[in-house]
Amino acid sequence: MSDFEPKVVAFVCNWCTYAGADLTGTSRIKYASNVKIIRFPCTGRIDFMLLLKAFANGADGIIVSGCHPNDCHYTSGNFHAKRRWIMFKELMDFMGVDMNRITFSWVSAAEGAKWADVVNTTVTRLREMGPYVSYRDLVNKSVEEEVKNE
Amino acid sequence: MNNLIARAKELLENKIVQVIVGYEAGPTGVARPAFITNPAKADLLIYDERCVQNLAVYLTKPEVRNLGKMAIVATLPVMRSIMMLISEQQIFADNIIVLGVSSDGSLLDIADIKVMQAYIEKSDLGNPVKDRALLVELNKLSKEERFAYWQKELSKCIKCYACRQACPLCYCTRCTVEVNQPQWIPVQSNTHGNMEWHILRAMHLAGRCISCGECGRACPVGIPCHLLTMQLADEVHNYFKVYAGTSEKMSSVLSTFEPNDKESFII
Predict the structure, then answer these.
(1) What are φ and ψ of residue A2, in 5° steps?
(2) Which residue ranges form the domains of chain A, and what is each CATH number?
(3) Percent of chain B predicted with pLDDT > 90
(4) What percent of chain B has pLDDT over 70?
């Protein structure tokens, strides 16, 4: 397990966190290279189905990040996103999916250091947790189920 | 029940409505939905403990809508569904007469939406008592046990979408599961895809579910899928202090927000 490197997918908004991550780079701050950043127009666009698809396709962890409340480029996208994440988190908790694998954060375009910190703490936590075996088993089992049914 | 039949007859004879949506006894004695257009047949209407289906699901169906103005036999969950459908502009309050029935089966005098709202507000809006007990049991389990429990239940799902069809609030003419570019939900039944479908359904009903439990009753393989939406109905009340289907003006929880919504997990 010692050489396990988690795969992390980051869903970030174009206007704050993506620019913030850019600043991390231009400020020459080093952070874990495990993260693959996907740029969205707004956190309000980040559908919960996309997070599920990330897990299904082999992600060990997810970061969802956008503008701080009141800073949304589209005024209210992040407020809507916040309510959706609250509901999503409660539903996933109820279904027993491990929500420690998803980090939700607000990172502004000026917070390059915070972005590095968010990524590093997430990756450290995921290294301890190990690969997301239970979800991967579920997906593999489902493929087998289908082969059997055919 | 006699009051209900008399009222239904009166409405049809005076041409105030064209159809009564209610329950009748089927050949095997089970209650089934009835769509009565002829006043002479109003005697078929029944209302007793067998009548559990949420009839509000028919309000948005074109086949029923095309019959004309309707009156509907409505228990509390049906009234809340109607409220929700009006607030989402799926039906017009003027096109519907509510034949409210109380939990003991007596006919209520629901003259208009305001009266219905008052009746809903003074009722118990939480989840049904037996489902509350099940939710408490499930919430006591550990995360791994809950994961195993839902895997076991959801592996039974045959993707018939009865839960969607039975739900008065799942009225989209093109559901996300029918979208195939991209294919959000796999067409075949497998545990992972079934889980994605049930998460999607619960999320789309978050803040809209009125806790009638019809999805769980409709499921042919006995998945307690109503617990997912009911758990979220509970959470909606915990976080946002609202119950769905209590006002014709209320927009659903996830399509609105308060700047000071509280959460503890976003860093």
Answers:
(1) -65, -30
(2) 8-149 (3.40.50)
(3) 60
(4) 100
Q: Would you list the domain boundaries of chain B?
A: 2-121, 129-255
Average pLDDT of chain A, as a whole number: 91
Mean pLDDT of B7-17: 91
* Residues A56, B143: C-beta atoms closer than 8 Å: no
What pLDDT was estimated at residue B133? 92
Q: In the predicted model, what is the mean pLDDT of residues B211-235?
A: 93
Give the model's pLDDT for residue B79. 93
Nearest to B190 among A88, A95, A146 (CB): A146
Tell me which chain A residues have a C-beta less than 8 angstroms from the C-beta of B139. 94
Name residues of chain A where pLDDT drops below 50.
Answer: none
Would the pLDDT of B105 be above 60? yes
Please provide the distance, in angstroms rounded to a whole number, between the alpha carbons at the two ends of chain A.
Answer: 36
Distance CA B149, CA B110 (A): 43
Tell if the CB–CB gap between B149 and A48 is shorter than 8 Å.
no
Instruction: Examine the pLDDT at B150 and tell me if it is beyond 60.
Output: yes
Residue A5 CB neighbour total at 10 angstroms: 13
CA A72 to chain centroid, in Å, comes to 19
Q: How many angstroms separate the CA of residue B254 from the nearest CA in chain A? A: 6
Nearest to B199 among A69, A91, A93 (CB): A91
pLDDT at B104: 82
DSSP type of residue B185: S
Contacts 24+ apart (CB under 8 A), B119-128: B119/B76, B119/B79, B120/B76, B120/B79, B120/B80, B120/B83, B120/B245, B120/B246, B121/B246, B123/B76, B125/B80, B125/B211, B125/B243, B125/B246, B126/B211, B126/B234, B126/B237, B127/B211, B127/B230, B127/B233, B127/B234, B128/B211, B128/B213
CA-based radius of gyration for chain A: 16
* From B150, B200, B255, residue closest to A95, measured CB to CB: B150
Q: What letter represents residue B37's amino acid?
A: T
Lookup: tokens for A83: 């309510």
pLDDT of the residue at A1? 52
What is the DSSP-derived secondary structure letter of residue B101?
A: B
DSSP letters, A44-84, are GG--HHHHHHHHHTT-SEEEEEEPPTT--TTSSHHHHHHHH
- Mean pLDDT computed over every residue of chain B: 91
Closest residue in chain B to residue A117, using alpha carbons only: B267
Neighbouring C-beta atoms of residue A105, cutoff 10 Å = 23
